[in-house]
Amino acid sequence: MLKRNLTSELVTKFNEALAKILEYKSECNYDEALNVVDNTLKDIFRLGMKFFNSLSDDTLMEMIKTDGTINTDKCIMMAKLLEEESDILECQGESNNAFYIILKSLNLFIQAYIGNNEDCDLQNHFADIDVIIDKISDYKLSFTLQNRIMDYYNKIKKYDKAEDMLFEILEYTNFDKEVLEKGLTFYKELLNKDDEDLHIVIFLGKK
Q1: Quick check: 60 and 104 in contact, CB under 8 A?
Q2: Range(s) of the domain holding residue 200
Q3: What's the pLDDT tens digit per position in 75-101?
């Protein structure tokens, strides 16, 4: 109960900060918006933007785990704040930095979604996942992130998109044995699903 109350307090603080960020963005007051992002990260996670921008994805994930379990709400807060930072930087013409940070945000969002096994207060922000994926779809992504996107599509039962990502990973890795095995597992699992669960037709002969 204490843990839940503490998380609820953080969620309230986060929502208030997010409203300020969106207000400053609407006024094109990007410096103030970044200040709110920075201060909110410090307030919730005890580290500012510079530290978050320099930390690896794995380190960021460890920051929001308790006894090895992801705190979904805190993970969403971190992901959303980084998403807002990226959007502001893009508005300021810092596209390279913005892209680097949005990848961190996406990674956090997907891991929060896949690992979520409880009701959380901020799950409405999971809708940002598809928006971010569309935003970066023309860029070459890392093998790790491609895998996570495939797992995400599999989780939400968009099997056609999961298959598309599988073929991208196969090309990226030059048909690595481990990836081929993952592909075989993917198709075996599809064969065990009923028509209502599939919703779509998968063309196994796709090139």
Answers
A1: yes
A2: 140-207
A3: 999 999 999 999 999 999 999 999 999
